[in-house]
Specification:
Length: about 475
C-alpha cells in the first residue's frame, strides 16, 4: 500500500496524483492522507518516478480538471480516492468514468451537483450584518456553515454584488475577507474573525422580522417545499430562522383556514363551502412542549417527555419516543431500553450524566392490549407515523440548536428520519448508515440500532448490542 501525503488542497492532491500516475501506481494501492503526519512506522511512500525515464504526457479531456476540482469540494472521507480512481481510469482510456451512467461517474456527478447547490445555499441564505465603521475592520460581517468546501469558489459572488464595500464571511473552517479590491481566504478561520462574525448585532433585524412575519402567507404554506428550498440547518443563522417554526405552527393550527375563509367569505356567491371560524373555533398554537397539541399523540400520553442532560453536552443521543415508564416519569430512557443503553454506555466508557438524551417524538404513542388491571400490560408501543414525527421536529430542532452538540448519536430509524427530515423511517435502511459516521453541517452523526431493537432481536441481540457500543465509542472518539 502506498500512502500519498498532501496538504489537503486540490492543488496539492493534483500534483501528488500526477506523480502517482506517472509512476504507474494503481488507485486501489493508494491511501490518501491529507494531513502531513505519518500514520505508522511502516508507511511506504509512493516511489518517485525513475529520473531516467521521461515522464509520459497525461492525456485527459479538457473538462476533467474542472469536474474533479468541483467534486473535490464535496466533504466525504473518500473524496481524494474517488478523484484519483476516476483520473486513473480516464488516463487508461476509460472515459465512462466521468459520466453519470458509470458507478464512479454517477458519484462524481452527484457530488458536483451537491456542491453547486451548496454554493446556491450560500448565496441565498447568508445574511450580512452591518457594523459601525472602524478603520481596518470590515463593514459587513456574516457567519455561515456550508456543508462542503465552497467558501473560496462561492464568495466571489458577494464581491461582485457589494462592490467596494468591505466584508467578512466566517465559516467553521475558513474565512473570506474582501477589502474592496482583493479577496483573502484564511484557513483555518482565525478565532477573532469567528467571534466578530458570530457576535455581530443586527440593527435591521426588527424591521426585517416584522416584514417577514407580515408577508408570510399561512394559506400558501407547503412545509416540504419550504424546508427543501430553505434547509433547516441554515435557520439558526438567519434572523428569520427562529420565527419560521412559530409561523408554521400557527399556520398548522388554523391560520391557514382563517386566511382562506376571510377572503372566500367576502366573495359574493351562492354558498360558502368552507366552514367559518365561528363554526370551528381555532386551537391556539402550542407555545411550549408541555402544551404541544401539534399532532394527536398527546391525547393518550401522560405528559410530554423533554430531553435531559447538560446544556453544554458534546454528545446528543436521539431515541424514537418515550416508552411506558418514561411517560409516567417524564424522563427519557429510564425503562428497559434505558437499561440496555446504560450498559452500552458503560462499555463505551461514557456516562449518561455527560450526555444529552432526547427523543424524536416527545409523547408516548401506544395501543391498548392485555388485561384491564395492569397498566403496563395495557400500553403497547406503537410506531409514530411520518406526520407525527414531522410535527415533533420543531422541538428536536430547538434542542439541536440550544445544545449544539459536536456529535449526534441517532438511535434507530425514527430518529434518523427525523434528523434527516425525510420523516419516512420505513424508506430507510439502518444498515446503510451504521458504522459510517457522516457530517451534517458542523455536527458528526453516528447511527446505531435502537436499544429496544437489542431487546427485540432475539439471537441477533448481541450483534445489535455490539453495534450500539461501537457507535457510542465512535461518538466518544469524535469528541476527543
Ligand atoms: N425508547 C426511546 O426511544 N426513548 C425512550 O426515552 C425510551 C425508550
Amino acid at each position: 500500500m502506498h500512502t500519498a501525503h498532501f496538504d489537503g488542497s486540490f492543488a496539492g492532491w493534483r500534483s501528488e496524483a500526477r506523480r502517482l500516475l506517472q509512476a504507474g501506481i494503481a488507485p486501489h494501492t493508494v491511501n490518501w492522507q491529507s494531513d502531513n503526519r505519518d500514520s505508522g512506522l511502516f508507511v511506504e511512500l509512493a516511489p518517485e518516478p525513475a529520473p531516467s525515464s521521461p515522464a509520459p504526457a497525461l492525456r485527459i479531456p479538457r473538462e476533467l480538471p474542472e469536474l474533479l476540482e468541483s467534486a473535490a469540494r464535496f466533504r466525504a472521507e473518500d473524496r481524494w480516492a474517488l478523484l484519483y480512481r476516476i483520473l486513473w481510469r480516464v488516463t487508461q482510456g476509460d472515459r465512462a468514468a466521468m459520466l453519470a451512467g458509470d458507478s464512479d461517474g454517477s458519484v462524481l456527478q452527484r457530488r458536483i451537483k451537491s456542491v453547486r447547490r451548496e454554493a446556491h445555499h450560500m448565496h441565498a441564505f447568508l445574511r450580512f450584518r452591518e457594523r459601525p465603521a472602524a478603520a481596518g475592520a470590515p463593514t459587513f460581517v456574516a457567519w455561515h456553515e456550508p456543508a462542503h468546501d465552497i467558501l473560496d469558489s462561492a464568495a466571489g459572488h458577494f464581491a461582485e454584488r457589494l462592490g467596494r464595500a468591505t466584508w467578512l464571511i466566517a465559516t467553521p473552517d475558513a474565512a473570506a475577507l474582501w477589502d474592496g479590491a482583493q479577496m483573502r481566504i484564511l484557513r483555518p478561520c482565525p478565532d477573532e474573525l469567528r467571534d466578530l462574525a458570530r457576535g455581530a448585532d443586527d440593527p435591521g433585524a426588527d424591521l426585517w422580522l416584522a416584514y417577514y412575519g407580515a408577508t408570510f402567507n399561512p394559506a400558501r404554506l407547503n412545509q416540504d417545499v419550504l424546508e427543501s428550498n430553505m434547509p433547516v440547518r441554515f435557520w439558526k443563522d438567519l434572523p428569520e430562522g427562529p420565527l419560521v417554526p412559530q409561523l408554521m405552527s400557527q399556520a398548522r393550527a388554523g391560520q391557514q383556514r382563517l386566511a382562506q375563509t376571510a377572503s372566500v367569505g367576502e366573495r359574493s356567491g351562492k354558498e360558502v363551502l368552507i366552514a367559518s371560524d365561528k363554526a370551528q373555533p381555532q386551537r391556539p398554537p402550542s407555545t411550549s412542549l408541555g402544551d404541544c397539541r401539534d399532532c394527536a399523540i398527546w391525547r393518550d400520553a401522560t405528559c410530554a417527555v423533554p430531553g435531559e442532560g447538560p446544556r453544554d453536552a458534546r454528545i446528543m443521543l436521539i431515541g424514537e419516543q418515550p416508552g411506558d415508564q418514561e411517560d409516567l416519569a417524564g424522563r427519557p430512557f429510564i425503562g428497559p431500553a434505558g437499561q440496555v443503553l446504560q450498559r452500552a454506555l458503560a462499555q463505551a466508557d461514557l456516562t449518561r450524566e455527560a450526555l444529552y438524551l432526547t427523543n424524536a417524538v416527545k409523547h408516548f404513542k401506544w395501543l391498548p392490549r392485555g388485561g384491564p388491571h395492569s397498566r403496563a400490560a395495557t400500553r403497547l408501543h406503537a410506531t409514530p407515523k411520518p406526520g407525527e414525527i414531522k410535527a415533533c421536529r420543531r422541538w428536536l430542532s430547538e434542542e439541536l440548536e440550544q445544545i449544539a452538540p459536536d456529535v449526534v448519536v441517532v438511535l434507530g430509524k425514527t430518529a434518523l428520519a427525523s434528523l434527516l427530515q425525510t420523516f419516512e423511517p420505513q424508506r430507510l435502511r439502518l444498515a446503510d448508515y451504521v458504522g459510517q459516521p457522516f457530517r451534517n453541517g458542523r455536527q458528526w452523526v453516528v447511527v446505531a440500532p435502537h436499544p429496544a431493537a437489542v431487546l427485540r432481536a432475539g439471537e441477533g441481540g448481541e450483534q445489535r448490542f455490539a453495534e450500539l457500543v461501537t457507535a457510542l465509542e465512535q461518538a466518544r472518539q469524535l469528541t476527543a
